[in-house]
Amino acid sequence: ATFVGRTVAGSVQVFGRKQVVVLTLARTLFIPLFTLCNYDTTLRHFKPPILFSSDIYPILLTTIFSLSNGYLSSLAMMYSPGLVDTPAEKLVVGAWQAFMSSLGCLCGSIAAVAVT
């Protein structure tokens, strides 16, 4: 689904720069929604109430989360070089974006290993 979001962003840019920032920050709302989904309560010390008992909810949330990840990250990559003036600065912005994206993937992978 991330691939689909990235592909759609190449042809459909619905949101502007400021809206992309707001929507990216709003994605943090998925965290409490995921914790309210059905899961094995014997494996956790923290046991929030289960609001979404069907297995379809985590699947839908993961799909929406993944689509929004691909779409919003691609829009951010497209919009950011437009914030600077010279071609040299645009190259630097692109390089930093690629580095930070890779660093984010690395940190996420390390955090996933640490949690499990």
Q: In words, what does this structure look like?
A:
There is one protein chain. By secondary structure, the protein is mostly helical. The protein has 5 helices and no strands. Helix 1 crosses helix 4 and helix 2 packs antiparallel against helix 4 (56-79). The longest helix is centred in the last third of the chain and has 29 residues, at 87-115. The mean pLDDT is 88.
Round the mean pLDDT to the nearest integer and report it: 88
What is the general shape?
Answer: elongated
* Radius of gyration computed on alpha carbons: 17 Å
Main sheet characteristics: none
Number of helices: 5
Looking at how many chains there are and whether they match, the oligomeric state comes to single chain
Strand content: under 5%
Classify the secondary structure makeup into a structural class: mainly alpha
Tell me the number of strands: 0
- Unreliable segments (pLDDT under 50, ≥5 consecutive)? none
**End-to-end C-alpha gap:** 24 Å
The residue fraction in helices comes out at: 55-70%
